[in-house]
Amino acid sequence: METTYAGAIHRTQWPSLALRIDTQYGFFNTWNESMNSGLGVSILNQHENSTSYNFSQINFNYAYKVQLSNDWSFRPGLEVGYGLKSFAFQNLLLGDQINIGAGSINPNSVDPLLLNDKVHFIDFTAGLLFHNANTWLGISAKHLNNPNISFAANGNVPLDTFYSINAGHEFLLADYIDVQLFPYETKMLVSANYMQQGEYNRLDLVTSLMFRNLFIGATAVTNPAKNSTNSHLLTSVNIFTGVQFEGLRAGLSYDLNTSNIGRTGGIYEISLTYQFNLDIKCFGCPNYN
């Protein structure tokens, strides 16, 4: 879309477990008519409470619009990011520091494993998007350069490339269902997003409705690979809702766990998005920038 967006998201995962993770994400995307291009920046921060592990990344993205026909457009895009992973290794207690005989803890270790508290890396992403006013198909590949994310001083742990294919379609329900059952203005969005990284994959199936200023929907999160005998095909169901007034949209979602992982406390997410160009309105459309 040839418009300007800004937004922020906060996500809390599994607050009832020691594995709690808090994530913050912010973005700003805009359109430059003279360049026929979209420009954007995003910031991600993720923190694991029990381990003090922290991951932060800032990304700069660019997309160019190619008009294929009166209805269809093609947008190739590139993204360059700078990532920082940190871990409080100074809080670790190694075996040779424990002096059982004296009942004391040595302040230093002679363990040969040298660990860095911080890891810095550059990250590259590329993507393609085909779309018209109501339908889209996108393909992307993250970590194309397979950055080394090892904390060991001489280690080499390349980050696997993350592949994604997503598609969606938005339509008026009245075009397919008796208008007496739904208000004429009610819109429906159906979409799917398949993700693959290494041996792991995930398929999200999404449906949502919007009438006037209210939207509500659900996402079925599936694990097609089922990497172990205990894996579940359906791992969670995400329920989301929200409201939109003028250019401001606020959303809230909650993940219902369907696996045997236990009582996790679920996953909460709250989002705020603002669209600056109010002449362009599109419920459910992807962020084309």
Characterize the structure shown.
This protein has 289 residues and is mostly beta strands. The protein is 0% helix and 55% strand. It is built from no helices and 17 strands. The chain has a 14-stranded antiparallel beta barrel. Strands 7-8 form a two-stranded antiparallel sheet.
Question: What proportion of the residues is helical, as a percent range?
Answer: under 10%
What does the largest sheet look like? 14 strands, antiparallel, barrel
Overall residue-averaged pLDDT value: 86
**Largest sheet, order of strands side by side?**
1-2-3-4-6-9-10-11-12-13-14-15-16-17
- Tell me the strand percentage band: over 45%
Separation, N- and C-terminal Cα atoms: 7 Å
Tell me the series of helices and strands, N- to C-terminal. Answer: EEEEEEEEEEEEEEEEE
Low confidence ranges: 280-289
Instruction: Tell me the Rg in angstroms.
Output: 23 Å
- What would you call the shape? globular
Count the DSSP helices: 0
Structural class: mainly beta
The tally of strands reads 17
Walk me through the topology.
Blueprint: E1 5-13, E2 21-32, E3 37-48, E4 54-64, E5 66-67, E6 73-86, E7 98-99, E8 104-105, E9 118-131, E10 135-142, E11 162-172, E12 187-197, E13 200-211, E14 214-222, E15 234-245, E16 248-257, E17 267-275
